[in-house]
User: Fold this.
Amino acid sequence: MNTTAEIARDEAMAQVDSAANAIWKEKHEEAVREICKDLGFGGEFTTDLVDEYMKRMSPDVNTHERRAQGPAMARYARIGLIRSTDRYMDSEQEVCHARPKRVWRVQTFSV
Assistant:
């Protein structure tokens, strides 16, 4: 049973995801798949690494809202590409002010 807070979270994530740039979504998934390939099964990373790959692979692609990464990462977890861990690491990005970011683990052998 979903709590009111969980329902609100899911609605907010759906809203952010639906408003995200479609090309950004495509390029974001390509970056995550490349990370999975590079790290291999069991490799761990945060979205800081996704941002690095995006800057390298698709420097001109952006979306209006950085929170769009949340629904994207959740989508990759649902399809079995990655899974969340119970760990967090402080972000190394200045814009994030060292806030904790979830650690994700690669869950596939082939990408």
